[in-house]
Amino acid sequence: MDIEGCLLPEFWIAVARDTGIKDLELTTRDVESYDELMRFRIETLRKHGIRMPDIQRILGGVEPLAGAVEFLRWLRERHPVILLSDSYYELLQPFLSALEHPTIFCHHLEVDGDGYVSDYLLRQTDAKRKSIRAMGDLQFGTIAIGDAFNDVPMLQEADHGILYRPSNKVLDAVTEFPVAWDYEQLQSHVTAAAEA
Amino acid sequence: MDIEGCLLPEFWIAVARDTGIKDLELTTRDVESYDELMRFRIETLRKHGIRMPDIQRILGGVEPLAGAVEFLRWLRERHPVILLSDSYYELLQPFLSALEHPTIFCHHLEVDGDGYVSDYLLRQTDAKRKSIRAMGDLQFGTIAIGDAFNDVPMLQEADHGILYRPSNKVLDAVTEFPVAWDYEQLQSHVTAAAEA
């Protein structure tokens, strides 16, 4: 299951709102190259004197989406769960306790001696899809849940893909998966997929 | 990390003690073929009228090893953790809440309409080693922790293997890994491996 947009609000938007730095609201919808976007974010944080402890303090004040903790608990009582995110352990750290320490596969940010983010270190490219494939190779049936374009490859790779609250743009472009608009619907879709 | 012997007591021994059925104390040390052993256990349970709800009630009264919950919490605060067991989801179910719903890779027991265990369904052979290899393929560094002969392949496959409270027999035969005798030592070994 994806994290940002599915269990937690979008991190960069949260930091942008808290700091009032509009530039941090840019996403891959605005800047096509992820590398360019991340380098711009890193530069913007440094320009405004925002260090990792500041980011973690801001995110520490952000709540999981309403019902997310209960949904994740429900899921973990029934299935082995891995959260697959293209975000970073350092940004997720403030949420681990609220999410009750789930198993997360994501990436690392590099932080320099002054506390500034200095680089991003992708564990591998196409990480979500490869993780689903690895679970399939381990002879697990797989259910993937995501909301955004970067989730589509893992939804396609899984035995069952489910879209959770996709944007209109995603909804228009991706028509092959069932869609859930709240956690109750998501529970129904997961139950149906697990019994299929 | 392995479960039985590392975080929880041995399940079959617990059932044997509670029911007084000596035959359930047999292990792969006594019966070389795992298949033969499991078929014998299944037959023994049926002969004594022990059904899955009875087993789960017995195991529901068994505590995790002293300090295990705290150790697992410590580990999950620092690393993505997957518990790798050659046991069965149905036997682990009574412990999930006490262990705070970790992600577990193991196998399934088949239960018939009368509630008796009727078969065991291995998800795959050599499951622990293959799981470690899959994590390596996903570009994770890996630390494997186990206590028994069936853990040795995963300890060998991992970047770092650690033996936890092995029997003398294991200790004599397997000399290539650091050994921890309590959770404090295990923390030190994990920390050293993660920093290596």
Shape of chain A: globular
Give the low-confidence spans of chain A: none
Q: Major sheet of chain A, described briefly?
A: 3 strands, mixed
Radius of gyration of chain A over all CA atoms, rounded: 17 Å
pLDDT averaged residue by residue of chain A: 96
Helix-strand pattern of chain A = HHHHEHEEHEHEHEH
Number of strands of chain A: 6
Helix content percent band of chain A: 40-55%
Termini gap of chain A: 19 Å
Describe the structure.
2 copies of one chain form a homodimer. Chain A is an alpha/beta fold. Helices cover 42% and strands 16% of the residues of chain A. Chain A has 9 helices and 6 strands, in the order ααααβαββαβαβαβα. In chain A, the strands form 2 sheets. Chain A has a 3-stranded mixed beta sheet. In chain A, helix 7 links the parallel strand 4 (143-146) and strand 5 (160-164). Chain A is globular, with a radius of gyration of 17 Å. The two termini of chain A are 19 Å apart. The relative contact order of chain A is 0.14. The interface between A and B is medium-sized, with 24 and 24 residues.
